[in-house]
Amino acid sequence: MALIDVISVAQISSVFTSCVMDDVTRNKIRERHEKFHPTTDRPTLDILQKYECALERMAKDYVTVHGYLLPSTYGAIHVSAGGASIDNKLDKAFKFAEWSNVKQAGKRGLTPNMYGCYLDERNSHLTCVYDTMLVLSTLQV
Q: Its domain of life (predicted)?
């Protein structure tokens, strides 16, 4: 019985952390994320943020599930992604000024370690969720 419980938990866990987009789109997002907005200026460290499918799912839920809230310490960037092809949409989306929030968080010593993104092709939006709050609230002291 315990083995069945362990298998069930593992299967449920894999459902909740599985990626929601296809590999081609995800890889294009990852390439552009690093190309347009390098994640850090620390060349002696592992400079790439880790892409996480769990955060990809959060990004999708953030824009598709009414009332969905991110964990309070997480941040998100949500930008328009208009264009005729996926490549056009992503190239346009990654040029918005909102991406400077990732660099600004790093300057405050809060460089995100993980991120995940969701491209909503139907509504032409790209949303990325980070494991760090990117913009400090005016309510924080």
A: Eukaryota
Q: Rounded to whole angstroms, what are the CA distances from 135 to 5, 44, 123?
A: 41, 27, 25
Q: How far is CA 56 from the centre of its chain?
A: 6
pTM beyond 0.70, yes or no: yes
Domain spans of the chain?
2-130
Of 22, 32, 10, 8, nearest in space to 121 by CA = 22
Query: What architecture is the 2-130 domain classified under in CATH?
Result: 3-Layer(aba) Sandwich (3.40)
Over the stretch 79-93, which tens digit does the pLDDT of each residue have? 999 888 999 999 999
Q: Are 88 and 46 in contact (CB under 8 A)?
A: no
Query: Which residue has better confidence, 12 or 135?
Result: 135
CB-based burial of residue 130 (10 Å sphere; 0-12 exposed, 13-18 middle, 19+ buried)? buried
Total length of the chain: 141
Q: What is the average pLDDT score of the chain?
A: 80
